[in-house]
TrEMBL record:
<feature type="region of interest" description="Disordered">
    <location>
        <begin position="175"/>
        <end position="226"/>
    </location>
</feature>
<comment type="similarity">
    <text>Belongs to the CCDC43 family.</text>
</comment>
<protein>
    <recommendedName>
        <fullName>Coiled-coil domain-containing protein 43</fullName>
    </recommendedName>
</protein>
<feature type="compositionally biased region" description="Basic and acidic residues">
    <location>
        <begin position="176"/>
        <end position="213"/>
    </location>
</feature>
<dbReference type="Pfam" id="PF26091">
    <property type="entry name" value="PWI_CCDC43"/>
</dbReference>
<feature type="compositionally biased region" description="Basic residues">
    <location>
        <begin position="214"/>
        <end position="226"/>
    </location>
</feature>
<feature type="compositionally biased region" description="Acidic residues">
    <location>
        <begin position="132"/>
        <end position="141"/>
    </location>
</feature>
<keyword id="KW-0175">Coiled coil</keyword>
<dbReference type="InterPro" id="IPR058771">
    <property type="entry name" value="PWI_CCDC43"/>
</dbReference>
<dbReference type="InterPro" id="IPR037666">
    <property type="entry name" value="CCDC43"/>
</dbReference>
<feature type="region of interest" description="Disordered">
    <location>
        <begin position="132"/>
        <end position="153"/>
    </location>
</feature>
<feature type="domain" description="CCDC43 PWI-like">
    <location>
        <begin position="8"/>
        <end position="78"/>
    </location>
</feature>
Amino acid sequence: TFTPMMAASVEDFNSWLDSKLQSIGVDESILSPYIISILEGEEAISEKFDAVKNILCEFCGGGKEDVCQEILDCWTSTLKNPAMCKEKPKLDFENQFQQLMKLQAKCTITEKKISDEGQDLKQAILAQYGEVSDEPEDDSELVDHSSDISSTGCPQMMYGASHVPLVRNTNAELVARAEKEKREKSKQEAVKKKEQDKINREKQKQVQQDRKEKEKKRTQKGERRR
């Protein structure tokens, strides 16, 4: 029997979750992706518990608190696995910013193209945190806004240090919004599939009923001929 403590990886947890949902009579292909998106969110454990409980109650009735707790316990034990606790490498904004400044300081007056290193660093920062408005309200926060590239071909510093918290907060809000939209989309797809399954069952039931009626009429005709 697969137990929560055996969930040594995300793949193991996904398999366990599919089995658990099947055991309570729920289509795992509908709910499993949605529940996982909830668990991967940044919300507090209590909020995740309520969200999972609500979706389970919606699909299979109430009284699923024990199942919800078991799902959360299994997920928590999976994350505690040392192999799962390694953080993904994140872009160090300040470090990259300092590297750009050092790179700029090394530039000579001689015209030259932006080095591949400088271009890659700049693109990495912009890709991670997004671009800020070209016209900031406070000019003191702008180190050099005249051009991205100086007359020497070196990358210019577009943002002052005071922009770092603002950009980080904006990025965090975008991530949170994307996660929420992902969960809502998964829920809508789950509900849609549930309704489609219901329609398909009704059609199948009707086909079977029509077949029985035809068979009944055929039998009655045969009896009258006798």
